[in-house]
Amino acid sequence: MNLSAAHHQISLSDGNNIPLIGLGTYSDPRPLWNTEHVPSMVLPALERTLKALKLDYIDLYVIEMPMAFKPGKEIYPRDENGRTIYDKTNLCATWEALEACKDAGLVKSLGVCNFNHRQLELILNKPGLKYKPVTNQVECHPYFTQTKLLKFCQQHDIVIVAHSPLGTCRNPSWVNVSSPPLLNDELLTSLGKKYNKTQAQIVLRFNIQRGIVVIPKSFTPERIKENFQIFDFSLTEEEMKDIEALNKNIRYVELLMWSDHPEYPFHDEY
C-alpha cells in the first residue's frame, strides 16, 4: 500500500476509492438519522441533504446506526418519562431504500455505521442484495482495536472507517470516562518523540497502516493540518504490535442510553 501524501486512498469493493483520512464533522441534527429508517423516508432525507450541500450526488451514504427511533421531526423522540421512543427496525428494508438511491444516481457508494458482525451479515445475506456495504464506520483506536470486527470486514471486502480515532471528548453524559485519555499514553508519547510527531499523529498512522480510514474531528486549524501530516514516516512492524497490545477492549462511545434497543449493536462481542 503506497501511503504517500500524494497517494492516500484505498479501493472500495464497488470500484470507487476513499481517502485514508478525512475530516470528522459530527453535529446534530443530521440527515438519515435513526428517525428516518422507514424506507419511504430515506430518499427524501437524501434529497434534503443534497439540497443543503448544493450537490447532485454524494460519494458515500450510510445508515448511521442500526437502531430505529420513532419517525418524525424530533431527533430524539421521548416519552413522558424522558425515554427515547424506539421504532421497529428492518435493516434490510432500509438498505433496499439506500440501494434505490444508488440506482437513481444520487449516491456513489453505500455503507453503514456502528454495525456489529451479525447486523452486517443480515445485510450481506439479504435475498436479492444488489449492493454490498463498502464501509462500516465504528470506534477504533489503540485502546479499542476492533481486531475481530476488522478481520470480519476484511473477509467481506468492507473497509473500516474509524470514528473517534483519537479517543473522544470526556463528557460523562455519553462517554465512558473509566478508560484513561488515549493521547496521554506513555508508549504513544515515546514514539512521538522518536519520530518528532504528536501522539495523535502516531495514533492516526497506526490505523492507516492497518488499512483503516480515519476521520478525526477538530475545530483547531493547526491540529487539522497536523492530522494530515502522517505520510512522511512509517511505524515498524514491532511498533505496530506494541501499539496493538495497548488494546483495553473498552469503548469510549458506549451509547448506553439506548442499550435496551432490540438492535443495540454493542451487546455482541464484535
TrEMBL record:
Matches recorded under PROSITE patterns: ALDOKETO_REDUCTASE_2, ALDOKETO_REDUCTASE_3
Xref: Pfam families: Aldo_ket_red
Keywords of this entry: NADP, Oxidoreductase
SUPFAM superfamilies per record: NAD(P)-linked oxidoreductase
GO terms of molecular function: oxidoreductase activity
Record keyword Oxidoreductase present: yes
Ranges of residues in domain NADP-dependent oxidoreductase: 33-247
PANTHER family linked to this entry: ALDO/KETO REDUCTASE (PTHR11732)
Family named by the database record: Belongs to the aldo/keto reductase family.
Protein name in UniProt: 3-oxo-5-beta-steroid 4-dehydrogenase isoform X2
Classification of source organism: Eukaryota, Metazoa, Chordata, Craniata, Vertebrata
